[in-house]
Give the backbone structure.
Amino acid sequence: MRVLAMLDGTLADPDGLHIRVDDLGLTRGDGIFETILVVDGKPRELGPHLDRLERSARMLELPTPDRAAFERCAQVVIDAWTGPDEMALKIVYTRGPEFGDGTPTGYAMGVPIAEKVLRNRVAGVRAITLDRGFEPSIVASTPWLLLGAKSLSYAVNMAALRWAESHDAEEAIFVATDGSILEGPTSNVVVADGRTLRTPPPALGILRGTTQGALFRAAERAGWATKVEPLRLADLTSADGVFLASSVRKITRVRMVDGRPLPEAAELHAELSALYESEYA
Ligand code: PLP
């Protein structure tokens, strides 16, 4: 089951041909995207996702995405969806065809949540840390590296996940050269200690997570303390629980880091998951 709508709001055949072969999103990964979780027809964190799309567009110097058009296009997909209760809604915005009139390409596509992701939500994951190859101090002075933009150039992120999978893990956690914990290839890292949740700051060149944001909002309402601050590997191995947060994985438990078992944290996981879900009750 897949549903595709182009940015002008027209439904299109997801097996059809809609992207020109010279589209810069295709030939250079020159574009941006978001993946939004839709549950029972309701998109989660749509506003923060579109805010982040705009932020990414600014970083890539793309024309400002037409927010109303993306909202309409997302709704067309949601309205046409007849698949499972949960859908991953991917919105894509590229610089458009290289030999075109400069019009960006935009579309939204709904797909089911991958089986692997659903399994990991329940079973938790083993993660390995992987060197991301930059020091956080360069982030502000190297805007061309697009650190913290959700660009279509995710080949490195996908390679990191394949590397993890070939090394007895389901997930990777990127680490900067100074030892700062960054993020997963498609997730944010959240650490729980007592009644405090912590996550690394976007200023390190990572994405501002919409799921992490929702969890922190709910946790604060329930009396937890939340901190956005640098973390190191020792903070992961000494924590009461380590989690990967993303739209499709929700709050997934990390059971092992670099082969070292972490606390089971099943109850903590249940509590944090309930907090996250309470945002949408
Ligand atoms: N970090 C990266 C690199 C991502 O690609 C993603 C999502 O895919 C996230 C973090 C988590 O973001 P969100 O919770 O908004 O899905």
Remarks:
- The radius of gyration is 19 Å.
- Residues 35, 183, 186-188, 207, 209-212, 245-247 surround pyridoxal-5'-phosphate (CB under 6 Å).
- The mean pLDDT is 97.
